[in-house]
From TrEMBL:
<dbReference type="InterPro" id="IPR004653">
    <property type="entry name" value="DusA"/>
</dbReference>
<feature type="site" description="Interacts with tRNA; defines subfamily-specific binding signature">
    <location>
        <position position="190"/>
    </location>
</feature>
<feature type="site" description="Interacts with tRNA; defines subfamily-specific binding signature">
    <location>
        <position position="309"/>
    </location>
</feature>
<keyword id="KW-0285">Flavoprotein</keyword>
<feature type="binding site">
    <location>
        <position position="178"/>
    </location>
    <ligand>
        <name>FMN</name>
    </ligand>
</feature>
<feature type="binding site">
    <location>
        <position position="77"/>
    </location>
    <ligand>
        <name>FMN</name>
    </ligand>
</feature>
<dbReference type="InterPro" id="IPR035587">
    <property type="entry name" value="DUS-like_FMN-bd"/>
</dbReference>
<feature type="binding site">
    <location>
        <begin position="24"/>
        <end position="26"/>
    </location>
    <ligand>
        <name>FMN</name>
    </ligand>
</feature>
<keyword id="KW-0560">Oxidoreductase</keyword>
<feature type="binding site">
    <location>
        <begin position="218"/>
        <end position="220"/>
    </location>
    <ligand>
        <name>FMN</name>
    </ligand>
</feature>
<feature type="binding site">
    <location>
        <position position="146"/>
    </location>
    <ligand>
        <name>FMN</name>
    </ligand>
</feature>
<keyword id="KW-0694">RNA-binding</keyword>
<keyword id="KW-0521">NADP</keyword>
<feature type="domain" description="DUS-like FMN-binding">
    <location>
        <begin position="22"/>
        <end position="314"/>
    </location>
</feature>
<protein>
    <recommendedName>
        <fullName>tRNA-dihydrouridine(20/20a) synthase</fullName>
        <ecNumber>1.3.1.91</ecNumber>
    </recommendedName>
</protein>
<comment type="similarity">
    <text>Belongs to the dus family.</text>
</comment>
<dbReference type="InterPro" id="IPR013785">
    <property type="entry name" value="Aldolase_TIM"/>
</dbReference>
Length: 336
């Protein structure tokens, strides 16, 4: 395990560390979720939900780019396939203060396929390379790619190497590899996260054959022990659903993966630190549920967990005193 002060040769010192990151997840990793996760780990790299170039350029740009300064290090994931639009979107991301721009080449949903977004782009490596080059020419922050190990009909290792090599030649040096192929017809996005088998061996071979590139592993990782094992092979690990459903595992990340010696935050402490943020959101006219839906997993693994989740997912819609309810939920976490 490299000391945290050492950087692989392909990483610039200004790059955010990708040793541990939380995956971009639609409907989940919004700004409220990221604020909460940052309380648990100061080193984890956080990703936004995927934002399409169309939404960013022609929609409510401020809403899509809004984030709290405490969320850094923070990456914006973009969905798109038009180099000029991606370059314009990357410029907006840099101006808004994001630390990285990531291109989605992994989402298998029909909706994004029809717009030439996501995993379907694995069949068009030169187009992805053109997109990467346009973004790199437009901004000084890192431009990275998140992709699958293949798609149905284009799932050989040789084709994967062609994809990575072509995009590398456009200047991309960091690839996050979801170690499953994507089935573009017949499976839902949810099924595409479970049914195609995990092939960590393919991702490991890719790291072996492209040693100069930063290769971050994604897919099926659930524990920090697994993270440590994978870090013997890969430059970084990315957790998705496990980090959302069991977020308190992030409280061990700084110590276990980055050598941090600061005291570990408690579950109750994390919820207490959310209170001013929740209060500010309420004062802006927002609903507490917008935030607390992301902290339900904080109750995972202890006897009062069911009551904790009920208070913040059901009772929350019936109370006239949301902050009081939050305080009572926090009492269930005392000593946890």
């Amino acid at each position: 395990m490299l000391p945290t002060t050492e950087l692989p040769a392909h990483r610039l010192s200004s790059d955010p560390s990708r040793r541990f990151s939380v995956a971009p997840m639609m409907d989940w990793t919004d700004r409220h979720c990221r604020f909460f996760l940052r309380l648990l780990s100061k080193n984890a790299l956080l990703y936004t939900e995927m934002v399409t170039t169309g939404a960013l350029l022609h929609g409510d740009t401020e809403r899509f780019l809004r984030h709290d300064e405490t969320e850094h290090p923070l990456a914006l994931q973009l969905g798109g396939s038009n180099p000029a639009d991606l370059a314009a979107s990357a410029r907006l991301a840099q101006a808004a203060g994001y630390d990285e721009v990531n291109l989605n080449v992994g989402c298998p949903s029909d909706r994004v396929q029809n717009n030439m977004i996501g995993a379907v782009l694995m069949g068009h490596p030169q187009l992805v390379a053109d997109c990467v080059k346009a973004m790199r020419d437009a901004v000084s922050i890192p431009v990275t790619v998140k992709h699958r190990i293949g798609i149905n009909g284009r799932d050989s290792y040789e084709q994967l190497c062609e994809f990575v090599g072509t995009v590398r030649d456009a200047g991309c040096t960091s690839f996050t590899v979801h170690a499953r192929i994507a089935i573009l017809e017949g499976l839902s996005p949810k099924e595409n996260r479970d049914i195609p088998p995990l092939r960590y061996d393919i991702a490991a071979q890719l790291k072996h054959d492209f040693p100069e590139l930063e290769i971050v592993l994604n897919g099926g990782i659930k524990t920090l022990e697994q993270c440590k094992e994978h870090l013997n092979t890969f430059d970084g690990v990315m957790l998705g659903r496990e980090a959302y459903h069991n977020p308190y595992l992030l409280a061990d990340v700084d110590r276990e993966l980055f050598g941090d010696t600061a005291p570990q935050i408690t579950r109750a402490g994390a919820l207490a630190l959310m209170r001013p943020y929740v209060e500010a959101h309420l004062n802006e006219g927002g609903s507490m549920h917008h935030i607390t839906r992301h902290v339900l997993g904080l109750g995972t693994g202890f006897p009062g967990a069911r009551k904790f989740r009920q208070m913040l997912s059901v009772d929350i819609h019936k109370t006239d005193d949301p902050l009081g309810l939050l305080d009572r939920a926090g009492e269930l976490l005392e000593g946890r």
